[in-house]
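subagent[fold] <- orchestrator: predict structure for attached chain, return tokens only, no commentary.
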Amino acid sequence: MSLKRSKVGASRIDSSVENEVQAALTWLKRHSTKRTLEGMARYGLPSENALGVSVSDLHLLAKKLGRNHLLAVALWKTGCYEARMLACFVDEPERVTTAQMDRWCRDFDNWGICDTACFHLFDRTSFAWDKARQWSSSPSEFIKRAGFALMASLVAHDKSARDPQFLALLPLIEEGARDERNFVKKAVNWALRTIGKHSLNLNKAAVTTAKRLAASKEASPRWVGKDALRELASPKVRARLTR
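subagent[fold] -> orchestrator:
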């Protein structure tokens, strides 16, 4: 396997950071297994430019490395799947720019790296809400998925957000549900279900949206609506929200 590197990009990396990158790649290769790589393929994750390192091992290495923005940028440039996953875990949210978010997002080519970047990094930036709205209308499959994955991630991690902010996302979710591409509609469904489990008020609004989608004549929104309803209208979810 060859890990593609940009000569121009590499020349800009501080030598100490470059050494850390090489040390990280060595560690990743040492902890890779054929079994993990084959398992990734079964879940639609890439085998090209991937090593086969478990997520638990990635978290272990990230903890050892600590937060480091320059290292994250350099790791991303390697093109290695696990190095990019690691970059999402070690980057510093406060140093991430909108340009970086757009640049990384354009590199997304699978659901794993897309969701990891959104759930572990992008949703902690001050640009998360704007990017969620912006990306949700992208023609690109994985950029569009990132928009809805970011919405779901914000529900989990933005503790300062209020219900009206999430209510404003429902029209975008309803529009996004019309996209028939598998990785998009699954993220739309994820966002709708996550918002609908956040509070009683949001549950009521999300259930109304889901019912409208479930009644659609189009297959994609009908699937999103029916699948979301099974969870959002369940006694278990209602009981938890009431408590």
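orchestrator: received. Logging for downstream: DSSP finds 16 helices and no strands in the chain. The CA atoms of residues 81 and 240 lie 38 Å apart.
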